[in-house]
Specification:
alpha/beta; 12 strands; 564 residues; six-stranded parallel beta sheet; single chain; 52% helix
Length: 564
């Protein structure tokens, strides 16, 4: 017991590294596997006391990403998780929820020390540099997190000590030897049967090393029954559901709930909004978050998260990405070339959330141009152009009056409800598809009605054309709101072109997607492209060749005139 207390009083780095070994030293009990496949209803939580103030406060929506390792700068996989988390957080804010969106960096571990040494920096300098690179990328990607936790923060250390004191006092930490094949990158012991050739880790494709160590362990088997009950009675605890048939880290989320300058204590952090409504993680760490972590929470007397969502992996051109293959996908480069909206839209639209997904630049450009530049951007631009030409950029009717007697509004309302359903169920790709369906519906309508011809006819036809423009612009207003969790900057540009201010955009709620936001007399902005079409390399080369050819002809003509 004295040794256990000595461990708990060790520096935070020892706590974190030791905790991983506590949790990961043994595989989940075999009996958990059949329990994963049983259905049922209900929610399993451990009891925890809370203050009267916490009980009376509205329940926040706490959403977390993994705490990303700082052994290397952020890659597209970590960017994808965080983009998805940000879209979910933005949607929940539109619903009026008090959202606490937590992300951050895990700055302890053997591979981080190795990376720091390889870079010629001391560990603190290395962690500061890489952690800051995450913050910079999140800003570039329009990620609006509420809390950014670093596991080297002092308040985190205090909460970790408090957490382990509870687990220790419950008799769930013991000292023993362990021997096996260890993956440094995973920070996990591996069963030989799951390894690839030459005893390589199937995830990192690096050889696992034999290791024997005297360490502290968590008594996972003690919580087997409670874990079985949790997984069997709460079918939505692990999502998507097919992850339940696959193999099934973290105390930093809880410490992030503390406010700056607030006294660091586990109970205070719990009272700020735990349990989390949703943990977003990669499928490769599902076992850690869906088995080990809940068991440790139970030991500490803290409620488990409402749900753990394990998303898939990303590939490039059908191949696993890796530096050795020379096909890595750098999110910073993508943002610099194509912009945050394009990157966010492509990965959330093209990758069904929960499944694996693939990136190819050709498909990226084709999808983004077709959906954002053409279907949405061009619809707004040509409608505002017609309004400027025929109505001096001023709406002649309220959008409610313009829709009276037709089915256009009803069709849009149904699609808005459909998009909301998809967002609520984390079907982000389907939500994108449905919002695009609204845009397609608007394009089809304006093509069929041909308001440009009706304006020329004058009289009732011109009046009908003026109403049709209002219908399309009201549709664009609704698209701007419904797509804002996915493409926030594009949505802002659309909304301000409709005559609204940025401040008005910032306070929008999902209820504002109800038909009727545009009023007669409202003046629209000058039509400007809200999303520039992306040119392929082939198109750029063709344009350059065309310019060179034209330039040559002009020079030849000029020379001929001089000689004449």
């Amino acid at each position: 017991m004295a040794a256990g207390r000595a461990f708990l009083c060790a520096p935070c780095s020892s706590l974190a590294a030791g905790a991983r070994r506590l949790a990961f030293a043994s595989p989940p009990p075999p009996a958990l596997v059949p329990a994963l496949r049983r259905g049922g209803r209900g929610r399993c939580v451990a009891s925890v006391s809370s203050s009267p103030d916490a009980a009376s406060a509205p329940e926040p929506y706490v959403l977390t990403t993994p705490l990303y390792y700082v052994n290397a700068p952020p890659h597209m996989g970590s960017a994808y998780t965080t983009i998805a988390a940000d879209a979910i957080a933005r949607f929940q804010r539109l619903l009026g929820k008090k959202v606490i969106f937590i992300t951050g960096t895990d700055e302890h571990g053997e591979k981080i020390a190795t990376s720091a040494d390889a870079s010629g920096r001391n560990p603190k300098e290395h962690c500061d540099t890489i952690s800051n690179s995450y913050k910079m990328l999140w800003a570039d990607l329009d990620i609006e997190y509420d809390k950014f936790i670093r596991t080297t923060d002092h308040k985190h250390e205090a909460v970790v000590n408090d957490f382990y004191s509870r687990v220790l006092s419950n008799g769930d930490i013991y000292r023993a030897d362990y021997e096996g094949l260890y993956c440094v990158s995973c920070e996990e012991y591996k069963d030989e049967k799951e390894l690839a050739e030459n005893k390589c880790c199937p995830v990192h494709l690096k050889p696992c090393v034999p290791r024997k160590e005297d360490n502290y362990f968590f008594a996972l088997s003690k919580y087997q029954h409670k874990l079985e009950e949790l997984l069997a009675t709460n079918p939505n605890f692990v999502r998507p559901s097919h992850r339940l048939n696959e193999k099934l880290e973290k105390w930093g989320y809880i410490s992030a709930l503390l406010d700056d300058g607030e006294q660091a204590s586990l109970q205070q952090a719990v009272d700020r909004g735990w349990p989390a409504a949703l943990h977003l993680i990669g499928k490769d760490i599902l076992r850690f978050h869906a088995v080990y972590w809940p068991a440790m929470l139970m030991s500490a007397g803290i409620s488990v998260p409402d749900a753990v969502f394990g998303h898939g992996f990303l590939t490039k051109d059908g191949m696993k990405m890796g530096k050795s293959l020379g096909n890595t996908l750098e999110p910073k480069d993508l943002v610099e070339r194509f912009g945050a909206d394009a990157v966010r839209y492509f990965f959330l639209r093209e990758v069904e959330f929960g499944n694996d997904g693939d990136y190819s630049e050709e498909r990226f450009i084709n999808i983004v141009n077709a959906h954002l530049a053409n279907t949405i951007g061009n619809l707004l631009n040509r409608t505002l152009g017609l309004l400027k030409k025929n109505c001096k950029s001023t709406l002649a009717f309220d959008s409610i009056a313009a829709a009276d007697g037709g089915s256009f509004r009803d069709n849009v309302d149904k699609l808005v409800e459909k998009a909301k359903y998809h967002y609520e169920n984390l079907l982000l790709s389907s939500a994108c598809e449905t919002v695009l369906e609204i845009g397609n519906f608007g394009n089809l309508y304006i093509d069929e009605q041909a308001p440009w011809s009706c304006f020329k006819q004058g009289g009732e036809s011109a009046e009908k054309a003026a109403k049709d423009l209002v219908l399309i612009l009201e549709t664009m207003r609704i698209i701007a709101i419904a797509l804002s969790p996915i493409t926030p900057s594009l949505s802002l540009r659309i909304y301000t072109q409709l005559g609204f201010t940025e401040d008005e955009f910032r306070v929008l709620k999902w209820d504002d997607t109800k038909w009727g936001g545009l009023k007669a007399g409202q003046v629209m902005m000058e039509p400007q492209p809200v999303f520039a079409r992306i040119e392929t390399e082939t198109e750029k080369e063709a344009q350059a060749s065309s310019k060179a050819t034209k330039g040559g002809k002009k020079k030849a003509q000029s020379k001929g005139l001089v000689e004449a």
